[in-house]
Design brief:
Number of helices: 8
Number of strands: 6
CATH class of the domain at 51-201: Alpha Beta
Mean pLDDT: 97
Largest sheet: 4 strands, antiparallel
Bound molecules: 3-iodo-tyrosine
Radius of gyration: 19 Å
Distance between the termini: 39 Å
CATH architecture of the domain at 51-201: 3-Layer(aba) Sandwich
Strand content: 15-25%
Strand order of the largest sheet: 1-2-6-5
Shape: globular
CATH superfamily of the domain at 51-201: NADH Oxidase
Length: about 220
Amino acid sequence: MAQFVPLRTYREYPQSEMIERAHAFNTDIQRRRTVREFSDRPVPREIIEQCLLAAGSAPSGAALQPWHFVVVSDPKVKATLRVEAEKEERDFYNGRAPQEWLDALAPLGTDENKPFLEVAPWLIAIFEKTHSLLDDGRRVKNYYVGQSTGIACGMLITALHHAGLATLTHTPSPMAFMNKILDRPKGERPFLLLVVGYPAPGVQVPDIHRKPLDRIATFI
Ligand code: IYR
């Protein structure tokens, strides 16, 4: 049965303040860049926890929250993830990926070496769940699992950026090894592996640019 409570958290701003906030947020989020070299400087767990709670507030199909985050700081687990990811990536870069895909990746300068999986203080493995276990013990199907988990990941990346951390959305493919290493059941599919930490000192990023508004949006 549906049960409702008053919406107490919504906050309206004067229009001028809304415009200012929209500009300020865009300016700040435009500073976000994916980095592929991380510092080993430690990052307090409390920051990760708060960002995960922010991510967990994402909208989801039937509000079933079809995601699970495995947060890794154990050096042994990170080392194992690196070994397994690099195995897949070696195959990817040496035959599995079609030339067209490798050409698309060329501007990013990526290769099969993934030292960041051991260097960065935190790895967050995100799993999408085909089913949820309700509080009453019933197992139910989840809906819009990819969209929901994608939104949660976007919010996680945004929250981490807002906190002052850098991320790398890493998608070793295939990612089945993540279930084994991180002990997740079959009903949870690896979605992505987020690398989190401070950027390495002096890190460089690809000289790529974001599309202007008229190439990403149409107003009708
Ligand atoms: N998974 C590989 C390849 C890769 C694919 C895409 I699409 C990227 O945007 C970046 C990399 C890797 O992580 O190197």
